[in-house]
Fold Peptidase M20.
Amino acid sequence: MTDDDADTGGDGTGDGAGDPAPTVDPEETIDLLRELVRIPSPYFEEAEISEFVHEWLDARGHDPEYHHVSEPDITEYEGDNVLARLSGSDPEAPTLLLNAHMDTVKLVEAWEEDPCSGRVEDGKLYGQGACDMKGGLAAVMTAFDALSEVELAGDVLLTAVVDEEGPYGLGTDRLIRDGYTDDCDAAVVTEPGPILAQSEMENPALLLGARGRVFYDIEVRGKAAHGSQPEKGVNAVVDAGRLAAALNDMETGDHPKLGSGSVCPLKIEGGSQTLSVPERTRLMVDRHVVVGETKETARADAERVVDELGLESEVDIGFREAPDPGIVYGPYVTDEDHPLVTSLSEATRSVCGVDPAYGYFSSVGDFNYLGDRADLPTVILGPDGENIHGAGEFVYTDEVVEVADIVSEAAVRFCGRN
């Protein structure tokens, strides 16, 4: 290798002087997306799509492996992530993680056509999960395949994961627990971005962080009495309602990038006996948090609200049961000057001819596990669409191809060429 061919990589300039970046085949990318959408894959039911992704990668010589995911205690779930790695030549060069989930929400009944049709019309591909996030999955799969034609300095690790849409994100959680993220230096997650951004924006866009989430599971204990004499009891349902209203109006933290936190009471359960004052109620409350807010501060905030209300009922502030205390959707922000961000920005200009918009995600996903728990600089970059999680979901096909090309070029810039 001559000095003219050398490239250090890892600094956002890793595509090599004059070397063309790898590009994907648009028709092959959309054909792959159609095949993915035609496989029903609600969370906890991903066996068929896991096998398909494994076979697709194997047929192209990428030596994929199944990574088993087991959660026997709460969900009794058994499934398989699919992993593949492109090994670079320089052990000192950075490793890039490409993450996408294979599952969807449960199939929505309101579809007026087959929810897994993969129909293409007017530049839109329709189907449950087409946008969230089989479009992003197809993009990283074809980008990964294109990158195999390049002699990279650093590694690229592809992780197609299960159960992102479920309650615990078990697929990416297991990646972290089993050490697959330990040698990674940064991550790209190809979730749809602009549709769930904190502010109105359009692709091309890079989302550089996300709010986190805690899930209050609150027990309210009153005192039973005959329903004809409610003054002799303490009505846990009434007190739970007062508490839900107070939590809904609770002040939350603010962050210059992530915006404000939010609180949303979801459910009150309790009180089923005829003519009895309800003595026990369960209140479930969703809370999105920003950097600086933790489970501990969230608990303290809720306890302060309880104290201020002066309820007659006893209240225990807890959190939703999880398979492990480490399963937490923490907030995170990636620095705009990080080499991954500059690599993605330069690739966006190259592919799209414009600068990307910068934004921040309003909710949570596997990117929180990577950006917070795994402590990886993490960027969300994905094709947009409409009606995610609902009937009529679609993804813009041109954006699927653009994302694939941006990811492949940015990976070369970030990891470097040999």
Remarks:
- The chain has a mean pLDDT of 94.
- The CA atoms of residues 119 and 141 lie 20 Å apart.
